[in-house]
Amino acid sequence: MPLTVYNTLTKKKEPFEPVTAGQVGIYLCGPTVYKPSHIGHAVGPIVFDAIKRYLVHKGFRVKLVINITDVDDKLIKEAAEQNVPMAELAERVTQSYFASLDALGVRSVDEFPRATGNIGRIIELIERLMAKGAAYAADGDVYFDHTQAKDYGKLSGRNIDESLAGTRELAGRARHAADFALWKASKEGEPAWNSPWGEGRPGWHIECSAMSMAILGETFDIHGGGMDLIFPHHENEIAQSETATGRTFAKYWLHNGLTRIRTKAASGQWEDEKMSKSLGNIRPIAELLETYTGETIRTFVLSTHYRRPLDFSDEQLANTEKALAGFYRLFERVQRITGENAYTPGQLIQRLHVEASNDAQKAFVAEVLNARLALYKSMDDDFNTAGAIASLHDLAGLIHRYIDTHRLEGDASQTDRDILAAAGRGLVANGQILGLFEAPPRQPSRGGGLEGRLMDLLIDLRAEARRRKDFATADQIRNRLAEINVMLEDTSGGTIWRRG
Question: Do the domain assignments include residue 427?
């Protein structure tokens, strides 16, 4: 089936046809780096990293861009409260963000442009708008005149009255409450850059327009971001960009759902609330990575369709962790029977159809091949990663059943071993399309007998303490074991113990 995407601009699914055949440009709005990144900041990068991987798998040449907003009112305020230079705070938070993305397997981003590195381009774009009569200066500020934008509100579907609901006064020196700042005059002590209108800094919306068009062109394929950015940020991006160029800004607009915290009420019922700093329920990525592997968090995010809200809870992450452990156990089982590691290159399942010597083997090979088609079908339907991951579970179940039905644990023919090894490699390859199973997990040293069983118990107690955020108990278990020369190491496959 052809690849289709849901376009927020048209409010419907459309066939995906890039601006330039064979090439795809994607721009994703990144974080404002004034606070440590939280799980909500991870959703977009994980989703669009998976989208890029799939498009590359289909043969497209893809450029993925995620911006860094490193000058902003919130950043200036936070830096002042911490009594550090804005640039120092921004760099510290940015490097933490990069480390988190790497741990989450987000490694396909081509460029991370920063607002402060593009001031010249931003000024040039503002000057284009002023030359067209679409922007005006007012005592060092510059505003976009929303009346000059054709079809203003076409992305969000809001008219001007709806857009201004709750607005009490003009922003700064704007002529109209719907006009928005392109350039802000700096106050004393604030970071500032020279411009034709005096010293100041860019507005938020103009940064993304200038950076995306500089890297991807005046018209590019996909613009992404959270649904909370549809208005005003993305609406204003469209208005200023298309007014400046007279061309379509982004062809497809893809918006991921917001992250909600799922908690259990006193009644025992699950309740969802929006994740926000004001509610104090933010979960920093770095904190989560102390308890869960990056692959666990990535799998959890991709197990929900990107346009749906992501209901976050430690219980859900723990369930995802258990599901991944099931895949790892299957890979161990396949290796035990075949002597081959599913992560290493080898004969592909496609080549074994003619070697299958009986109907059961032929049917199994066909079903393994169909699992790849099922993944394609899901991803071609608006990048349905949830369906794609379901196909991985289906294939794992198929492999287990084939082993059990034909009792391959005891005595397997060479043909069965070849087919089974290829099926295991196929499952790994399918996962890698989504950025999963990129490296074999290091297996826990569980040991046997009473010693091994006691260590299993301690490791499980420590894991449960970490899930409850009882880090004192978790650390005490690790430290007391270290005192008797037993070392714990947390890996993607679980916790390993060994004598020091």
Answer: yes
